[in-house]
Specification:
By secondary structure, this protein is α/β, with parallel strands linked by helices. The chain has a single domain, classed as TIM Barrel (Alpha-Beta Barrel), CATH 3.20.20. Helices cover 43% and strands 20% of the residues. It contains ten helices and eleven strands. The strands form two sheets. The protein has an eight-stranded parallel beta barrel, surrounded by nine helices. β9, α8 and β10 form a beta-alpha-beta unit. It is globular and about 55 Å long. 49% of the residues are buried.
Length: 290
């Protein structure tokens, strides 16, 4: 069965997160995903707060920009949360929005090289290993976590271009695809991920997490159109859904059939009732999505 989740958008003020997380937890939603968009809310602090006020909900950070966070510090943060809330954290990393990285003086010449070095080092650190590496960007000398997690959480890569998709297949536990990804694009992405996995001889499970623009209730079509226009997406692409539970559930099934193992419904930035949207997904959409 496809895992179903919802994005808690960082356009909401931080003090609303606990209410949304509690609604997700009490309604039976499987996963709540958070973003670390510049310059809104910290992904790690938000995840910790949401986990602390819930009992069973899984939290995904999708994603942390690698240029913005030293890998040793990021591994310390992830290990701390995983030890406090074992089995409930999913971690996504990526090369970040390049304009934002430029704003903070963190843009690198080769984002793909950084991401490759970063993921390799983080996986070793979370496994409790002592890491010595002198890469182009990641340089660690005798670094070992004092409190590694008993079982490292899944580490996913946010990817959209062919080279980053192949890299994700080679070295990550899963891939995060943006809400502008159509079913056709999912199938293409899965092919590139599979090629990367074959190159590296990876045979374990690889999650494919896909965000899906979604809106329901009064004005849903108009809100979805505005959202996609803000994202500068081609309106001809099949990359969003607006309507009742039956319509949204049909889209979830379509995205799942294309290769998504997790479909994360992404409400519009102007969603009038985030808690209600969570309950709608967990209750009505889940019952129909199969």
């Amino acid at each position: 069965m496809t895992v179903l989740g919802v994005v808690c958008r960082p356009q909401l003020p931080p003090e609303r997160l606990r209410s949304v997380a509690r609604a997700a937890d009490s309604s039976g939603l499987e996963e709540l995903w958070l973003w670390e968009d510049c310059f809104l809310e910290g992904g790690v602090s938000s995840a910790a707060a949401a986990l602390a006020c819930t009992e069973r909900l899984r939290l995904g950070i999708g994603l942390m920009p690698a240029p913005l966070r030293n890998v040793a510090l990021a591994a310390m943060e992830v290990a701390t949360i995983e030890r406090m809330f074992p089995g409930r954290l999913l971690v996504g990393v990526g090369h970040g929005v390049q304009d934002w990285m430029l704003q903070v003086g963190a843009r690198v010449a080769s984002p793909l090289t950084l991401l490759c070095e970063y993921v390799a080092a983080m996986k070793q650190l979370l496994a409790g290993e002592e890491v010595n590496t002198t890469g182009r960007y990641v340089q660690l000398e005798r670094v070992r976590l004092g409190w590694p997690p008993a079982s490292p959480p899944p580490l996913l890569i946010g990817a959209s271009q062919p080279r980053s998709l192949r890299l994700s297949g080679q070295c990550a536990d899963g891939t995060i695809l943006t809400a502008g990804t159509s079913p056709h694009d999912i199938r293409n992405a899965c092919g590139l991920i599979a090629a990367g996995r074959a190159d590296a001889g990876n045979h374990g499970r690889h999650a494919v997490v896909v965000y899906l623009h979604a809106a329901t209730g009064p004005g849903a079509l108009e809100r979805l159109a505005r959202e996609r226009a803000r994202s500068r997406e081609d309106p001809r692409l099949n990359a969003g859904v607006a309507g009742g539970a039956d319509v949204v559930a049909a889209a979830v099934r379509q995205w799942s059939a294309a290769g998504a193992t997790t479909v994360v419904l992404q409400p519009t930035a102007d969603e009038p009732d985030p808690e209600g949207f969570v309950r709608f997904v967990a209750g009505e959409v889940r019952a129909l999505s199969g």
